[in-house]
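Onboarding guide, step 5: your first structure request.
Type a short instruction followed by the sequence, for example:

Predict the 3D structure of this protein.
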Amino acid sequence: MNGPPQPSDDPSPPGSSAARPRPRPSGVDLSTTPAGAGGGSPHPATPAAAPPGSRASDLRTRLLTATVAIPLLLIVIVAGDPLFSVVVATALAAGAIELYRAGGIPTRDPLALWGAAGVSATVLAAHAGADARFGVLTAVVAVALALVVARTDVERGFAHWTAVCAGVLYVGVLGGYLVSLRRLDDGRDWVLFMLAVTFATDTGAYAVGRAIGRRKLAPHISPGKTIAGAVGGLVAGALAAAAANAVFGLGAPPALAFGVGAVAAIAAQVGDLGESLLKRSLGVKDMGNLLPGHGGMLDRLDSILFVVPVVYYGVIWIIN
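The system replies with structure tokens like these:
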């Protein structure tokens, strides 16, 4: 963290080269510090004296965004297809663009656009079954490699090709289960079930971690997360699953709903840590700024991407 200039013990005169600051290497900003209890990714260093009211302003921004976004989300979930699939495909494509941009592929780069299109196509292919998804993934891999070959960029070709393919697998394949879950019988309520488990896990982990958390869970990835918080999130997610099962009248045996919720709560925390690791590797605080006060689209979907496949397969393999 940068502070006011301190007296120097260097006897060199002001005009000498020894008194001049050394230039920083280009690349990732080196003025990053580990995040505190509120996050697990690096962020730019800030002055010691923060502007008065800045935290209150950030909270207001977050609340305002949530006040607008949550009702819209509920409308989309209740409305179902085709609106639901289109919104999910669009949101996930935006998340993929954020990931590619953080990885050094500009937004308007044909590779980034092709990857985003592949994410949307993978999501929409959920309506046509597994063969359609595999067909989309085949096209993504082949065309992305062709685009890289056309550039003859030997130094970055492999990195860019694998980044595009990984983005489609991470965001498109995992996120595509949102459409699959919504298409089930009682799909609307199962989507709400999944969201209840995800939000309860996040809230429980934060509350318990703040209250009694001492031992760190993954200090090199997310210094603010604790083992106690992880246990609190697990319990909260499982209880939320049992409650949602009863409230929405899903008819699952309570023990099975509790068990699916527990596994989903673990998946939520793995997804959160996974995105934190990616952001630390890429040297960014947030994947984007699309949602004021909340970061980017991918920052809001990191846990959901891992929870929704668990809930989907829990429903079709275990509960039903």
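Each response can be followed by summary notes, for example: Residues 254-282 form the longest helix (29 residues).
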